[in-house]
Each structure stands twice: as structure tokens, then as C-alpha cells.
């Protein structure tokens, strides 16, 4: 698949340059900014580097990959480095059991763009995200049925909205990834 590598500058707010531990799961998100492109969201993460470390309200955010509404895929962070996508003050018990207290250290973050505020994903986004997740499941030896998490499952944040409000759509997505993994492994 065509992945545009457009890496962020190493900086404290979006690309700390730290090595990931063993990858235990993929975490999917929505960008929560309807109609924006993968590139625009990548540029937002890049813009965070201009904040001051003295700013108590500074934002820390990034993801490894962003999948756009047309199915375009932008990679912001190398697969062996930490991104800031599931950090929180409190984690679900399931997440603590699976990842310990710093889930960002062992998860790959994938942001999905969406045309509207209801968060429903385009067919193109779902197709590209499914293919990307399948490749990552093979690369990191993950099981699509249990190693793909919603941000919601890690912190209870309503993200990605469509998959939280339509859990059957998330199940269908994981099944499509499992199908793609089987086809790629054959
Ligand atoms: Zn999220």
C-alpha cells in the first residue's frame, strides 16, 4: 500500500524520539475535526513543536499514522518510536492489565479522518485503515480480534466516536482486518 512518510520533527510535544517497548496493540482514533485531511492533521501535530515547555497548558499529541477521507495514509512517527496518542491520567482496568501504566510505550496509534461530526468513516478510509492494520498486525505479530483497541477501550474517552456509538461497526472492522491478514499470510 502507498504510505506517505512525512515524519514529524523530533520535539517534546509530539515526537519524543523515545524507543517503543514491544508493541502489544494498535489503538484507533478519530481526528475529531470533520472534513480535515491526513496532511492537515499531520501538520497540526508538527505545529505543537512551537509550544513552550514552560506553558502549563501545552498540548502533547501525535499518532504514528493518519488515514484520510480519500484513503491516503500519512506516517508521522517511525514504527519503533513512541507517539502521544493514548496518554491520560487514568486508564481502564483492561488497559492497565494489558499495557501497564504507560500504554503509549507499547501501542501504535492510528488516526482516522471523517467527513462529518458524527464520525462515520468513508469506505475509502475503512479500506485503507484495514489494510494498514493488517500489515501492522503481521509486522508486530498481533491478533486483529483482540489486539486492536479503540482509544475508548484504553481511557474511556469517546474516541473514535463512530466505533464507540456503533460497536458492531468496530467488530466488522476487526473482522475485515483478520480477513486481510489471512489473505496476506497465504
Ligand atoms: Zn483518540
Provide a short characterization of the protein structure.
With 186 residues, this protein is α/β, with parallel strands linked by helices.
What does this molecule look like?
This protein has one domain: Peptidoglycan recognition protein-like (Lysozyme-like, 3-Layer(aba) Sandwich), CATH 3.40.80.10. The chain is built from 6 helices and 6 strands; from the N terminus they run ββαββαβαβααα. A 6-stranded mixed sheet has the order 1-4-3-5-2-6, with helices on both faces. The protein is globular. It is α/β, with parallel strands linked by helices and 186 residues long. The chain is 34% helix and 13% strand. The site of zinc ion has 3 residues, from loops.
CATH class category label: Alpha Beta
Q: Which kinds of small molecule does this entry bind, naming each only once?
A: zinc ion
Strand content: 5-15%
How far is the N terminus from the C terminus? 17 Å
Query: What is the mean predicted local confidence, pLDDT?
Result: 97
> Helix amount, in percent?
25-40%
Strand order of the largest sheet: 1-4-3-5-2-6
Output the CATH topology.
Lysozyme-like
State the assembly state of the protein chains: single chain
Taking the sheet with the most strands, its summary is: 6 strands, mixed
Order of helices and strands: EEHEEHEHEHHH
Query: What is the annotated CATH architecture?
Result: 3-Layer(aba) Sandwich
Number of strands: 6
Gyration radius from CA atoms, angstroms: 15 Å
- Count, helices: 6
Q: Can you tell me the residue ranges where pLDDT is under 50 for at least 5 consecutive residues? A: none
What would the principal axes of the Cα set say about the shape?
Answer: globular
Count of spatially separate domains = 1
Amino acid at each position: 500500500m502507498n504510505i506517505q512518510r512525512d515524519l514529524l520533527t523530533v520535539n517534546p510535544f509530539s515526537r519524543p524520539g523515545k524507543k517503543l517497548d514491544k508493541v502489544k496493540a494498535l489503538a484507533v482514533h478519530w481526528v475529531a475535526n470533520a472534513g480535515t485531511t491526513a496532511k492537515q492533521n499531520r501538520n497540526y501535530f508538527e505545529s505543537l513543536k512551537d509550544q513552550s515547555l514552560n506553558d502549563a497548558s501545552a498540548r502533547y499529541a501525535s499518532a504514528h499514522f493518519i488515514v484520510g477521507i480519500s484513503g491516503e495514509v500519512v506516517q508521522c512517527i517511525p514504527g519503533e518510536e513512541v507517539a502521544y496518542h493514548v496518554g491520560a491520567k487514568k486508564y481502564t482496568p483492561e488497559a492497565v492489565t494489558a499495557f501497564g501504566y504507560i500504554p503509549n510505550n507499547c501501542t501504535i496509534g492510528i488516526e482516522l479522518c471523517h467527513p462529518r461530526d458524527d464520525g462515520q468513516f468513508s469506505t475509502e478510509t475503512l479500506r485503507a485503515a484495514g489494510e494498514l492494520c493488517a500489515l501492522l498486525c503481521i509486522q508486530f505479530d498481533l491478533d486483529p480480534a483482540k489486539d486492536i483497541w479503540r482509544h475508548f477501550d484504553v481511557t474511556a474517552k469517546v474516541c473514535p466516536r463512530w466505533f464507540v456509538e456503533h460497536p458492531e461497526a468496530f467488530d466488522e472492522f476487526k473482522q475485515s482486518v483478520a480477513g486481510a491478514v489471512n489473505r496476506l499470510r497465504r
